[in-house]
């Protein structure tokens, strides 16, 4: 929360943790000296430490002018959230953008102080690629068992633990839909479907086929749910695929499909409403293409 604009004593303010690892830019400070204070935006000060989180160059210029007070807004939050505010404010700067090394250092700082935040959340704040965030997390030795995403939901990182959560929820509330369970546990609907099929098998109940969703094998035979990650693992172990360029390209494509399947629910939750119809149509066309491929392969296998 930011308070209205106030006047604060310059000598009462300090500089908090910098988002620029090289500190202030002297040339930029001198440019600010040629601008009147009335033309500059207020600095932002963290209430708990009275440190400037946005406007370090403006504070330095005020000190060089010999000013006793400076216009400011006071930010009421913890120090990490204050750092995030400073980072986002400086990332949007057009006069003095952050260097890549600054962004990487900021990502490391957040991973140390907010290890529970997901890679995507840290990437969105810092502008660093998600894969780089994951590598930094590994280098820092993070062993936390859960992540908090941008939507505020906590999800376990251990896939085995995720399946256990799905199983517990299905046993406790069997009436829930696949999507409801998926959203509650942070897994894909396909994972929920596989766990539910396993439970029904254990209980001696018939496994519900996917025929009603349009997935069927040759001659209309319903296909039982299968774990795509397991299928991909088998294909990866096939030398005939790994030894050819087309085979390796296919494995990369299938790997991307498996990775995305785990994120569809989260992606759908954050899509702009005006894109829903177009993307739904694209998804249907893509599904038809895959089904066409399945039918061709099944006919060739049967012949």
From TrEMBL:
It comes from the Bacteria. Residues 6-91 form the ParB-like N-terminal domain. This is ParB-like N-terminal domain-containing protein. The lineage of its organism: Bacteria, Bacillati, Actinomycetota, Actinomycetes, Pseudonocardiales.
């Amino acid at each position: 929360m930011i308070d209205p604009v106030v006047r604060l004593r310059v000598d009462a303010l300090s500089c908090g943790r910098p988002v620029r690892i090289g500190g202030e830019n002297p040339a930029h400070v001198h440019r600010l000296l040629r601008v009147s204070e009335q033309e500059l935006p207020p600095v932002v000060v963290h209430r708990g430490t009275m440190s400037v989180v946005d406007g370090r160059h403006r504070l330095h210029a005020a000190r060089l002018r010999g000013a006793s007070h400076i216009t400011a807004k006071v930010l009421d939050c913890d120090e990490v959230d204050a750092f995030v505010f400073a980072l986002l404010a400086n990332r949007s700067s057009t006069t003095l953008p952050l260097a890549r090394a600054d962004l990487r250092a900021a990502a490391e700082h957040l991973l140390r102080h907010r290890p529970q935040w997901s890679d995507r959340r840290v990437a969105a704040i810092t502008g660093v690629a998600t894969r780089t965030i994951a590598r930094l997390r590994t280098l820092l030795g993070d062993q936390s068992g859960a992540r908090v995403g941008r939507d505020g939901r906590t999800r376990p990182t251990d896939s085995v633990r995720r399946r256990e959560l799905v199983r517990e929820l299905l046993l406790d509330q069997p009436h829930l839909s696949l999507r409801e369970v998926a959203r509650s546990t942070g897994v894909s609907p396909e994972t929920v479907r596989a766990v539910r099929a396993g439970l029904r098998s254990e209980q001696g109940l018939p496994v519900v086929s996917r025929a009603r969703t349009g997935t069927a094998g040759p001659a209309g035979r319903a296909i039982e749910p299968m774990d795509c990650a397991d299928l991909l693992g088998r294909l990866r172990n096939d030398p005939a695929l790994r030894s050819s360029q087309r085979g390796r390209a296919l494995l990369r494509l299938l790997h991307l499909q498996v990775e995305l399947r785990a994120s569809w629910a989260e992606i759908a939750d954050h899509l702009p409403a005006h894109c829903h119809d177009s993307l739904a149509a694209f998804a249907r066309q893509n599904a038809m293409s895959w089904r066409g491929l399945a039918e061709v392969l099944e006919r060739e296998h049967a012949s």
